[in-house]
Amino acid sequence: MSELTERIARKHYERGRMFELQDKTDEAIDAYRDACALGPEFPEPWFCLGRLEASSGREEYVLKDALAMLDRALSFGEDPEISEWRGYVNGRLRRYDAALEDYLAAISGGAPGVRVNAGRMLLALGRYDEAERILKEAEEPAAAPLLDALPRYREFIEPAGTERSNARRPPRDPVEEARAMRYLFGSTLVLGTLGDGGLELQLSRYQLLSYRHCGLTLARMVRLVRERDWRFDAIGGGGPHHGPVAAALAEMLELPWHDKPAGDLRMLLVHGVVSTLDEARQLRRPWVSAGAEVTQLALGYSDRGDPSPHEPELIGLPAPCAVEWYRVDPWARLEQDITVKGGEFPGFRVGPAFFDGNQPRVTRALVDACRRHRGDALAGAVLAYYRRHPQVRAFAPSASARTPGSS
What we know:
Elements: H1 3-21, H2 25-37, H3 44-56, H4 60-74, H5 80-92, H6 96-106, H7 114-124, H8 128-137, H9 143-156, H10 174-185, E1 189-190, E2 199-203, E3 206-209, H11 211-228, E4 234-236, H12 239-253, E5 257-258, E6 266-274, H13 277-289, E7 293-301, E8 314-317, E9 321-323, E10 326-327, E11 334-336, E12 348-350, E13 354-355, H14 359-371, H15 378-388
Parallel strand pairs: 1-8, 3-9, 4-5, 4-6, 6-7, 7-8
Antiparallel strand pairs: 2-3, 10-13, 11-12
Helix pairs in contact: 1-2, 2-3, 3-4, 3-5, 4-5, 5-6, 6-7, 7-8, 7-9, 8-9, 9-10, 11-14, 12-14
């Protein structure tokens, strides 16, 4: 590279840094690309371009391009910061072995979180003893929940007695990932995600819970209550969205149904779909304020945030979803229309908001769907996970129902 070309490349790089400091990401990427197009023989523009592409891109081809930039940056010599970013990209690409090597190489740099990230890769690889050792060496608070979840990782992610390399591990269904995360870190009992076939897909990102799927989840809940011999005083939940589910479960369990808050009762509070953690809290608050002791069940839970001990103790489907009789969100009321060419939903138009206000009719449809699931072969497998790991919040003394003989 000539001295002039190198000087021009450095000017493009410095211009990119100025744009980045001004939060002008697109302009910074363009400037770094201009620098890299000249083939600079110093690492900074390659690293900065790879870092920004990794931060802003989700598509696999963008991540692979970012990885190539970071590889080029590392060709000039080892650098813990570049290795850490390379580990991040390899992790996003599910190349866990490569990501682990990168994070281990970055540990010498002393950046916070590197040991935790290396621990995450070891967990993904099923190398639990090594994960435990490296997480215990980490000083960051983020290591604590991973260590706490380690016994559940051993059971849930990699069944005991199996040894599968990452190369042979099949890709996980995103819904299964959501189920695992809620279970591992929210201590949430998830009832309805093991491939029933009753889910009606609307778009790849969303699902419409049919009566059949809701019936499966309710049937599993009935079985769980009876297996644990839980003693609820009543079932709670009201309104056109949540009321029919509560009424249906009350009928199946032969318990009173309250559509408005009641105090001094051990309540199973039941919902259709809960969209956010804040909504879960709002739905629970009036019942607790009235003096009820509450355990919360939602057929669907759409929150995209991290698992939380403040979300419902029991969840059917942990993914963006809606129920048949209450479709309010735009994606849940799509109608096929090939004349729609642009917008968020090409090929579909958004119909009017819909809910079935005939609660007895919806309740009857749910009860009928629930009773058709007497032969649910997967229920035993689902509930067996939680029998082996009873630390889920639904089983905690403060959350579980009264035991026989209690007042």
